[in-house]
Design goal:
Shape: elongated
Low-confidence stretches: none
Oligomer: single chain
Distance between the termini: 48 Å
């Protein structure tokens, strides 16, 4: 059985709109294309997803379960898309910081409150366990920032 995101969107929209014509319009499809997608979905799941009652399309038990699943999956997908957009835009995330020298951390107490005010959804995590090999940890992606007393930039 293969259920695609387009099937979940179809079920959600047909249930919301009540007719294939209105759902097709909302999904920017022709009514014929939507009918074909519904037929393919019903073939995949092995039964009717909607039944006609007058002009309305009413979900069957199978359709109601698909609708519940659609709400969960599409809700999770929407949340994931929002999280990714926030990460890309720098509004949320994790900033991992280490130092080659433990005495380099003393000034963070002055800087972090202003950083947190400007970026309240970014978590700052101090990673002291890689301090002994901080530049390797940076190269390996274990940290995002290294506070270094070395004046020479490492290769790369």
């Amino acid at each position: 059985m293969r259920i695609h995101l387009r099937h979940l969107r179809l079920v959600r929209e047909v249930e919301r709109a009540g007719t294939l014509t209105a759902a097709a319009k909302a999904l920017h499809l022709s009514q014929s294309a939507l009918s074909h997608q519904l037929a393919r979905l019903e073939e995949e799941v092995g039964g009717a997803v909607f039944e006609r009652r007058g002009r309305r399309m009413v979900p069957t038990a199978l359709g109601r379960r698909l609708s519940e699943g659609a709400g969960e999956v599409l809700g999770a997908l929407d949340a994931l898309e929002l999280d990714l957009a926030e990460l890309v835009e720098g509004r949320t995330g994790l900033l991992r910081v280490t130092s080659q020298c433990f005495t380099c951390y003393h000034w963070l107490g002055d800087v972090l409150p202003a950083f947190r005010e400007r970026h309240p959804s970014v978590e700052v995590r101090i990673v002291p366990e890689v301090a002994g090999d901080a530049l390797r940890a940076l190269d390996d992606g274990e940290v995002d920032v290294v506070l270094s007393y070395d004046e020479n930039e490492p290769a790369g």
